[in-house]
Amino acid sequence: xxxxxxxxxxxxxxxxxxxxxxxxxxxxxxxxxxxxxxxxxxxxxxxxxxxxxxxxxxxxxxxxxxxxxxxxxxxxxxxxxxxxxxxxxxxxxxxxxxxxxxxxxxxxxxxxxxxxxxxxxxxxxxxxxxxxxxxxxxxxxxxxxxxxxxxxxxxxxxxxxxxxxxxxxxxxxxxxxxxxxxxxxxxxxxxxxxxxxxxxxxxxxxxxxxxxxxxxxxxxxxxxxxxxxxxxxxxxxxxxxxxxxxxxxxxxxxxxxxxxxxxxxxxxxxxxxxxxxxxxxxxxxxxxxxxxxxxxxxxxxxxxxxxx
Length: 308
Known about the structure:
Blueprint: E1 9-13, H1 21-32, E2 37-42, H2 44-53, E3 59-62, E4 76-81, H3 89-107, E5 110-113, H4 118-122, H5 130-137, E6 143-147, E7 152-155, H6 171-187, E8 196-200, H7 215-226, E9 232-235, E10 248-252, H8 255-265, E11 270-274, E12 280-283, H9 300-307
Parallel strand pairs: 1-2, 1-5, 2-4, 3-4, 5-12, 7-10, 8-9, 8-10
Antiparallel strand pairs: 6-11, 11-12
C-alpha cells in the first residue's frame, strides 16, 4: 500500500551512524522525497559529517516546529535537531528515540527507526531492542511483526538467550500472546489482513510424540482448546516455508526460527511494531557496520518503510 500524497508525514530516528544508515538515506533520497515527508530527529552535525564523507550535495533544512512540519523543503534533508548532550552514544540515541516517541504520540504520525547496535546501549542499561523499549516507555505490550512481500512472521519470544526460551512458553503466556495478537489484528484489518496463521513447532519434527520434548504437545493442546479455527498447527518449522503466500502469517517460538527464512525470502521486508498508538516501522536489516561506506547497502527495505 503506497501513499503517493506529499502529506504522508513520518518521523525518522536515524539510529547508530556506525552503520549503513546514512548510505541508505542518501542513496534513496531522490525516491522517497517524491511521495512522503520525512523529518529526521537527530543531530545536525552528525548528518553534516555523513554528507561530507559521501561528498553529497544534498542540503539540510532545519525544522523548528515538528508538529506542523512548517518550513518543510522537499529537496532537502529536513531535521528537527536534537543535539548530542553527552559523550556517551547510548544517552544520545535514547534521547533522540524518546523525542521521536513523544512526537508520534502527539501527532499520530508514523515513526521509522533505523537500526542500532544493541550492545552500545545494553552494556549500560537493561535493553533488549527498540520494540521492547518502546513498549516499556509507553507502558504497553508490543509485538514484533516482520511484514514481508511474500509472507509475514511474529516471534513469540524476541531478543532473549535461546536457553531460556522454554521458560516463556507456558499456557498462560502463549494464550496471552495469542489473545493480544488477535485483538490487534482485528483493530488493524486494512493493513494486517492474514488468511492463514500458522504456528511453528518448537522441537525438530514437532517433538516426535514427546521423544524430543513435550513442548509441542502442550502447544497443540492450547491451540485446540482456544484457537482451533484461527490457527493452523503446530507444524514442522523445517518444511513450513515450502508453502506460503503474502496472506500467510507464521508464528515462531523464538527469534531466529522464522527470522532466517523471512530475511532470505522477503528482501523488501520490514519490522512493524504492534501495540503502540502510532505505527513504528524499521528496515529489516541490521547496522551492517562491516560494509559501511562501501556503496553496498540495499535500500529496498527502507523504501518500503516509507511506503507503508
